[in-house]
Amino acid sequence: MLSVISYDPLVQIELGPLSISPHGIGIALGFVAGTRLMIPVAQRNGWDLDKVYACVVRAAIGSIVGARAAYVLNHVSDFDSVVDVFKVWEGGISLLGGFFGAILLALPKVKKHGLPFWKLMDASVPGMALGVIIGRIGDLVIADHLGTTTTFFLGYRCPPSSVETGSPCVAGTVVHQTALYDLVLTCALLAVLLWLRRTSGRPERYAGFATMVFGAWYGTQRIFEDFLREDVRRFGLTGSQITAGLTLAVCLTWLLAVRRTPRWGRWDEQAAPDPAAAPADLVPALPEGADAPQTDPPQEQE
Predict the structure, then answer these.
(1) The model's pTM
(2) Considering its fold, how many domains does the chain have in total?
(3) CA distances (Å), 296 to each of 283, 293, 299, in order?
(4) Confidence of residue 86 (pLDDT cuts 50, 70, 90)
(5) Which of 76, 81, 144, 275 has its Cα between 20 and 30 A from that of 111?
(6) Model confidence at 87, in pLDDT bands (50, 70, 90)?
């Protein structure tokens, strides 16, 4: 073992009567930064920013609901009452649940405003990756998502028992710091997504391509990372691994076999009515046997 990472985490920031978690700050800043990364693309595409921001607000609410709901479903035994389920400030959220919650709650608003779903998703996934990166910094600050013991040089040495950590940690042991791994791998993913954005004009870059790359890549890394985490398992897998596995299967199939924009969600491609074309039922019918009226040719101007 060459070396290990060792520091005392900062789980809470006390501001008078308020107690703020750096983890929550990281999540909030990540969402804001991710939205900011998406806005220039929306402007270039000529989308109404008021409509885009309305969808973003829905996504923010959905991410909180989805993140908490997914965690609760996977850790039902941790809650003594229904009231405890709503105590989000006490911790317990799922990143993947947040992704799906954001998409599902924003979807009706996206359709209502006629925004192109797959193009909007392609514009959003680099921001989603950036949000993960900033959020993981918050995880590192509080020493959250600590995993199994290791001799890996990037392992984290647990502080004395008198020091609070975001995850359970036996003093002196060296464990995998999975939030760090997720941060590094997502930085690489962000670089790829930004490159795909710059090359979006290529024929193979159909709408939805970057979204499928994001789902396949992040799903793969979460499957491997969660083998190093301490979490509730069913059939040997965490809830995030099951969700990531299904996401990976769908996205990889689309990238390798389907290779085109899904038919669903392409509201921007609906043909608009031609105002110059008069509906057939508005053209007056001629009496039976009558010839169509003749029009004189235009006279030449001298």
Answers:
(1) 0.84
(2) 1
(3) 20, 10, 8
(4) confident
(5) 275
(6) confident
